[in-house]
Amino acid sequence: MLKTLPSLNNLVVIAPHPDDEVIGCASFFKNRQVKKLIVVTDGGVQTIRKTMANEKYVLKRQKESSTFATRFGVNLKNIYFLGYHDGQLNRIEIKEIFQKIALLIKPEEILLIPSNLDGHQDHQCISKLGGYFRNKVIYYTITGSYNEDQSVLKIKCNNKLLVKKYYLSQYWRLLKSNFPFRTYEEYKFA
What is the C-alpha separation between 169 and 139, in angstroms, rounded? Predict the structure, then answer.
């Protein structure tokens, strides 16, 4: 069942990669409820085919994330890129990532963190952060699914169009990889 978007403000989206924020949390951005964006990896891994030099690719993805977030009201000074290598978070102590993020958030902020149901190892690693913070946490899915769990909020949203508009470096790659674009987003409140 699809529900309406709750009235929440002061949200912080923690995205493993540049583009996960639009795929998993676009509704909150569109309603201007997100005040801060923290992107953990550099997004530097290029799959399907290499399209440009790695440094240029990283900067392009950061620019796309910044453009998307600022378009929907996030102040540029509240957008952070931690710069960990894409696909390598399982080699980093989760406590190290937690400590970096803890310096950027306030206790009253509500955190949006990827669900542990997502298949990507970086998404699963960031999901573990939920247990470290004392903040209220909402888990979002990017590729996983909660399978009709009654405690899940589902919101209609065509993220495919937003990715096409704001994330040109990723749109073609996602189409080629048969990425499962959905017509809704899923959230589970911890």
Answer: 26
